[in-house]
Amino acid sequence: MITFDDVVKVYPGGGTAVDHVSLELPTGKTTVFVGPSGCGKTTSLRMINRMISPTSGRVLIDGQDVAGQDEALLRRGIGYVIQHAGLFPHRTVLDNVATVPVLLGKTRREARTAALELLERVGLAPEFAKRYPAQLSGGQQQRVGVARALAADPPVMLMDEPFSAVDPVVREQLHREFLRLQKDLGKTIAMVTHDIDEAIKLGDVVVIFRQGGVVAQVGTPQELLADPADEFVAEFVGRDRGLRSLSFDTAAELPVLPVPAELVLDEAGRPLGWKTGADDVRPTGGTFTSADTLRLVADLAILSPVGIAVRVDADGKADGITPHHDLADYLAARRG
Amino acid sequence: MNLDYLFDAAHWDFSAGSIPQLILSHLWYVLLALAIGTVIALPIGLYIGHTGRGSFIAINAGNAGRSLPTLGLLMLMVTLLGLGLLPVLIALTVLVIPPILTSAYAGLRSLDQRVVDAARGVGMRPWQVLTRVELPMALPVLMSGFRSAALQVVATATVAAAVGLGGLGRLLIDGLAVNDYSRVLAGAIVVAVLAVLLDLVLAFAQRWIVSPGLRVSR
Amino acid sequence: MITYLSNNSEAVLAALRQHIWLALLPVLLGFVIALPIGYLGVRVPWLYHPLVNVAGVLYSIPSLALFVFLPVVLGTKILSPLNIVVALTIYTVALLARTVADGLRSVDPLITESATAMGYRRFRRLVDVELPVALPVILAGLRVATVANISLVSVGALIGVGGLGQLFTRGFQLFYIEPILVGIILSVLLAGIADGVIVLIQRAVTPWTRFQGGRA
After folding, report:
1. Which pLDDT score, from 0 to 100, does residue A13 have?
2. B72 vs C183: CB contact, 8 Å cut-off?
């Protein structure tokens, strides 16, 4: 667990970057610091590995004040990933990944063998090992950056806008892999981003900062969307937060009605479309299963020509429908 | 060793061989070499930089020029052409050409190509692109090349004295010949001060002719 | 020219040998001295501009003046090769100290920062990360210094110690073109070869630079 105990950072110019922040970052979870630029989120992150020292207050890792520890040794035990990856241009991909193990005293050969396995873990083929960073795309560089941070198997990882320098398609892909990797590894991660969507998607806990280095709200993504503490948070998480909060629940408990005659099926029972006139069949616009999110159900109800979302079973056979007013009733009842 | 020679008022009248007179002749060689060298090197450097043709020459001109021993060149020219201003000028001009050519080329090449594209996009003709966009933007690099050329020539023009011409080298060569180290010291100091002053003048000129918009990111 | 060479091969070779070590020893010495000075210019930011200015003034002292002048300061004999070595070392330091500082300053702060965050201590970071990344810039400066030194040595002939420069003064005094030509050609060749060797070394020790430039 990483603890911020009444931490303040005032810069010599007089600006307060971090203003009496107290936080707990749970072990094995991803905590995302998010907020507008200049809100102190990066300063806070960098106080964890002593790249910045607090003016007052303490930062503790598992109860140990970082201020009392040797800087270099502390940092070797904390993975660090930054925007543009910050790879060493003069070292091959493999030697970049092997950096920290070598610093910790491993032989180059041992470190390289381990590095090769890590590359595979982050989705890079072995032939990339001998290349230099300049020969990689932005997304590939970022993967190497993650592998390098993981190389010494540190329990704690710091990530400073790790995915903001790549295009949306690659970012999407990196997000998926990040979630998969974190599910396996269960690191204690502190991540900084300015993108609230990224925070909601990747964070177990989200910390929203506001200007002046003040924490506006801490909570799970669901909590933030459902119950923003104030106007600033509500504005920051966005106007469609109601719709987005539906992403966190599945349609498992959503009641359905029996399939009506107006839904045209093929021989196997798969939906073909809605009969809206004598010879007029219009496509359903998609289907959902009980494992899909409520957000998808809402989306389908809106897209459907008749305002009804169609549920299918694992074989794709239609096994129920939910009209939009039933969905609305369900959501209203769920809110209590 | 002392500063007697430098501070002796008798050496500061304008008679032949006095310090002011040597400064003038020294400056004369420097300015002539810089002028001729610029007239030759600038168009070539700009042409190569603008068209991209012959980059090889521009890239290697710098090192090739530096590798030519000026003293050898000077003595070769004097042996071929006889004593006089011409062989000295040729040797010094050869020294001036590479840095100016290379910096003119590098100045144009280092430009943000999007700006050049934009200039073409708004309908400028090649000549207009060169004179209104590329040249003004390349000026900082170009001027730094010109300044290093000037520094080099000021220092090297002293060897003119070795083949019997004037300039501040006289103080060095003659002082050495008669073991008058005070005179040698005077020569060294005056040349160094002259070089620094000339560089300052050029730095001011640069501030004056380079657009303030290019000064911000330095 | 061929006849001149065959008749004077020993004198020419001796001049060439002297030229080589008079030019290259200062490169080595200057490089070793310039490294810590250049590093200081980065480590202590307010030192950078004074460093650049002092280097500029040193470089603008005419070589002839320095050659003549050093015996007085050092107490060496006027004909001592030491004068040339010290003078050229001064030029090399003036040139390379700035290059080293500029090279180190050119290292992307993101790279030094990520090295720090990974647990590098200052000295090891300098040796393992900053210097290697700055190497292309530093080696480019080393090329300039080497080539400049090789052509400057000959000015020493005016005070009696100048390697191939002695061929110039001899030819000039005798009004005889061959030795001058031979001297110029050998000097230029020597500079070209030395330059080429540094380029080869640079290729060998900075293999990554071949891939840069294509992508940011």
Report:
1. 81
2. yes
